[in-house]
Write a structure and sequence with these properties.
With 114 residues, the chain is of the alpha+beta class. The chain has 4 helices and 4 strands. The chain has one domain: GIY-YIG endonuclease, CATH 3.40.1440. Helices cover 48% and strands 21% of the residues. The longest helix has 19 residues. The radius of gyration is 17 Å and the shape is flat. The protein starts with a helix and ends with a strand.
C-alpha cells in the first residue's frame, strides 16, 4: 500500500460514523436478557464476549449463565435501537441512551448488562 492509499484509509477510518444505541445480550437456553446502552455498538459485542470468555465480566449473573450454558454458542448479541439524531450533543446523546435503556429494560423485563 502506497502512502497516499494509506493516508486515505486512515482518513476514512477516522471519519466513519460509530453506531450509538441500545443492545441486548440473550441466553438462548434460559431466555434471560441483559440490556445496555453503548456509544460504540461495533465494539460492544467484542468487549462483552471477551470479558465473559475470560470470566471477568462485571455482571456476575451473566457470567454465571455463560459458564452454566456453554459460553458463546448459547448467547446472542442484538442491537435493539440505533440513535438516528446525529445532531444531539454529548449531553443529549447520554440522556437519550439512559431513557431508551430504561424503556428496553422494562419492555423486555430484562436486567442491566452492566
Amino acid at each position: 500500500m502506497d502512502k497516499t492509499s494509506r493516508r486515505e484509509a486512515i482518513r476514512q477510518y477516522k471519519e466513519r460514523k460509530v453506531p450509538v444505541g441500545i443492545f441486548a445480550i440473550r441466553c438462548r437456553p434460559t431466555a434471560e436478557a441483559w440490556v445496555g446502552a453503548s456509544r460504540n455498538l461495533d465494539g460492544q459485542r467484542n468487549s462483552s464476549f471477551f470479558s465473559l470468555r475470560l470470566g471477568s465480566h462485571r455482571n456476575r449473573d451473566m457470567q454465571a449463565a455463560w459458564k452454566a450454558h456453554g459460553g458463546e454458542e448459547a448467547f446472542e448479541f442484538s442491537i435493539l435501537e440505533l440513535l438516528e439524531d446525529e445532531d444531539l450533543g454529548p449531553l443529549g446523546r447520554d440522556s437519550w441512551l439512559k431513557e431508551r435503556e430504561r424503556h428496553w429494560l422494562a419492555q423486555l423485563g430484562a436486567r442491566s448488562a452492566v
